[in-house]
Amino acid sequence: xxxxxxxxxxxxxxxxxxxxxxxxxxxxxxxxxxxxxxxxxxxxxxxxxxxxxxxxxxxxxxxxxxxxxxxxxxxxxxxxxxxxxxxxxxxxxxxxxxxxxxxxxxxxxxxxxxxxxxxxxxxxxxxxxxxxxxxxxxxxxxxxxxxxxxxxxxxxxxxxxxxxxxxxxxxxxxxxxxxxxxxxxxxxxxxxxxxxxxxxxxxxxxxxxxxxxxxxxxxxxxxxxxxxxxxxxxxxxxxxxxxxxxxxxxxxxxxxxxxxxxxxxxxxxxxxxxxxxxxx
Amino acid sequence: xxxxxxxxxxxxxxxxxxxxxxxxxxxxxxxxxxxxxxxxxxxxxxxxxxxxxxxxxxxxxxxxxxxxxxxxxxxxxxxxxxxxxxxxxxxxxxxxxxxxxxxxxxxxxxxxxxxxxxxxxxxxxxxxxxxxxxxxxxxxxxxxxxxxxxxxxxxxxxxxxxxxxxxxxxxxxxxxxxxxxxxxxxxxxxxxxxxxxxxxxxxxxxxxxxxxxxxxxxxxxxxxxxxxxxxxxxxxxxxxxxxxxxxxxxxxxxxxxxxxxxxxxxxxxxxxxxxxxxxxxxxxxxxxxxxxxxxxxxxxxxxxxxxxxxxxxxxxxxxxxxxxxxxxxxxxxxxxxxx
Lengths: 280, 339
Prior knowledge:
The complex is a heterodimer. Chain A is an alpha/beta fold. Chain A has helices at 2-7, 54-62, 84-90, 106-111, 126-139, 154-167, 184-199, 211-217, 235-238, 241-248, and strands at residues 14-21, 31-38, 43-47, 67-74, 77-78, 91-94, 172-176, 203-207, 220-225, 228-233, 252-256, 263-267.
């Protein structure tokens, strides 16, 4: 048990330092000199239009993209120097897309999160069982554990994948659009869950299109635009109409939501007779 | 993703013990039938006596020297092909993958036949050449898929495999065109498979390969579980995707090659059996590979029994029998995948 607690100890910042990526056959870089620091105990959100390089940033962690320059470190260790198992013990990643081609039961699927901590042969240790049970509980999928992964709804599938990452018990958690397909309640539950993990000292990195939720939950926001950092900082410094309009190429107003007091983004209807003008 | 039928199958298949029990029973039945049925029918009681060396010497000779090695070889080949197919499906994340359709078996056959054409007669050396052939076919098939598709798309991989397999058949025909049939096993043996000339040394070689190579796959089964999630999820969970999938692909290919060296090209066992094992509730690769070995043995011992009784006294090629079963299954499965 004390071992399990140590696994999730704080103190692992995830740092992207001057990272550039160019895919084979592409003239434009997918990422160009991007630096991001995700601190432990905080939720860092990476936002930006489609194709701005958000997923590429996540893929540099999986080391499956050709990095031209820069380095990624977790704590003070260079990610490139870690073997796959060591990496999975430090960083749990929920990739953007995944299909259950050869379905497993949810329980078996979540237990694969323990792969990097288990020997090739032999059963699960008490720590493994505890981590899986806790992950299932925190992701709210207890009623689904006996089901097969190809019978899940889109929302259940997302939460099952998050549970698998939680079972890794890594101090750093990186999620690429984890709330796609989720309804409002489940989306809020995921944000609350990630917020709780950050408060426990985890380093949480979230790629998301949900700017309004990001503004409410994330303490650090990185706005990517065509492979570069267009803005970074707290919600007040990134959630600004003129910046967002330029990056998203769409008329946008930012207001302070009177109900919850957070900054809120409102894309305007931009064409035809419904063209909207912000009332000042 | 919601699928009522899958959900029902799901509940039925929670505990695979029924699959194990039925498989064990079937194996016992087909083995006993395989030992008793033939040109000279032998009663079950006499079969058991003959195995222990009791009774009529000619019965003992038939059971011990002819039928037992043939049944065992069929069992080992079936188990090996099924395991190989199961592992290839996991590494390629495609339930239609199998050594025959991927051209790996064809490569192994070409390796063995080429060695024979150069006068190699030693069975162990022949097996080594089959391994080399399988490895080369693996490289060629992956290279074709990569050049054509830009990445290793598994659909392209299967297409490339079928083409390489066809090329292998042609190469076998050419190489064995002027082979003296009384000295060499003919092109038909290699192209369609047979357990007819099973010998105890061949059984031992095939069984040894099954134990070692199949053992590696069973030992690394959880790597297969993780690989079958996809490249990115597998990398995220701590598997060095490129290296491990290459290794396991090669081991699975060699397992298929060992069966080819022993009994020629036999298709579709590696396709049908792992899917059956999954349907029976063995989803994770470790139980799935073990159950596949069991049912692969059952299927091929039964197929061999059919091969020598269906049109007796003619001995049908084993690959013909398995293709008759396997092709409809493939089409059915293809439809469900497309749906």
